[in-house]
Amino acid sequence: MNGSNNKKFILCSSVLVIFSIFTITINLNDINFIAHGQTNVTYSFLTTWGTQGSEEGQFEGLNDVHEKNGFIYVPDYDNDRIQKFTPDGEFVATWGTEGKEDGQMNHPHSVAFDSEGNLYVTDRGNLRVQKFTPDGEFITKWGTKGEGDGQFLHPHGIAVDEIRDFVYVDDATNMNIQKFDLNGTFIAKWGSEGSDPGQLSNPESLDVDSQGNVYVSDLDNNRIQKFTPDGEFITAWGTEGEGKGQFDSPAGLSIDDSDRVFVTDRGNARIQVFDSNGIFITMWGSPGTENGQFARPEGIDVDPSGNVYVADTNNNRVQKFVPASPQQ
């Protein structure tokens, strides 16, 4: 075989190798994907818990879920409480009652945690943020009704930069993001109503990556926006639709330790995963009540081991998916 034929053979072999590396297989309970040099990662349905009701372990409209220090926390929206579980769904504790006093709640929507394990919750109906110890003891609160600095009309998503000690809150009516220190002192805000870069239309959820950049699910604009910690626009991705990288009301958002962005695509009843620049990686899910199916998925979180927890809102349950092969 001459040199020219050798080159042709090597080129064809390379094409075959590349084709095989980027093959994607999607099943309901078993999702395989490889992207950007990652090893072959398989996500499988593991377990689910919750039914509709007001007893321990039951839910009425859960909108978020969050893992911290080996426990799963769920704001139980219409039951006006926080519930705490083991990672397998065993009930541990609950706190909160309906009201406006310290420690009481009126439609708690989203939760986040600082590096000490303290819990921050957007107390939507009371137009404030409340801060608790990991065991539910009240620490402090901030927020009043209005459009000014530190005020809210519809506090929705919340995220804590555990490295830099900042708290970010999105307001779905004021169409802005506000930035605070861990005690609720106002620092900055950005955003206005619209569809241009940096503008918002019903911001639903947000999270922070390892560099401190802030990602927001801009629900009515069917996109994800990425900002610097000071609110400077970096990039955005997504359009309305059912295809890869398209959305029908992107709701929950979580960033894992590798800065991959997990999004609950609410209207399409699925989860989509992207890298930090918005490059599509994979997706899974379909409408329904079976394992791995969703009915209005809202909140999402990824724990340090890569396990994914989804608040399956209209099914009144939490679903857990696990990586069945090593991740990088």
TrEMBL record:
Extract the InterPro entries matched here.
Answer: 6-blade_b-propeller_TolB-like (IPR011042), NHL_repeat (IPR001258), TRIM-NHL_E3_ligases (IPR050952)
What keywords does the record list, in alphabetical order? Kinase, Membrane, Repeat, Transferase, Transmembrane, Transmembrane helix
A Gene Ontology molecular function term of the record? zinc ion binding
Q: Quote the EC number.
A: 2.7.11.1
Question: Which residue windows are transmembrane per the record?
Answer: 9-28
Q: Domain of life here?
A: Archaea
Q: Does the keyword Lipid biosynthesis apply?
A: no
One Pfam family for this entry, by name? NHL
Q: Which PANTHER family match?
A: E3 UBIQUITIN-PROTEIN LIGASE NHLRC1-RELATED, PROTEIN LIN-41
Instruction: Kindly provide the name given to this protein in its UniProt entry.
Output: Serine/threonine-protein kinase PknD
User: What species is this protein from?
Assistant: Candidatus Nitrosocosmicus franklandianus
Supply the source organism's classification: Archaea, Nitrososphaerota, Nitrososphaeria, Nitrososphaerales, Nitrososphaeraceae
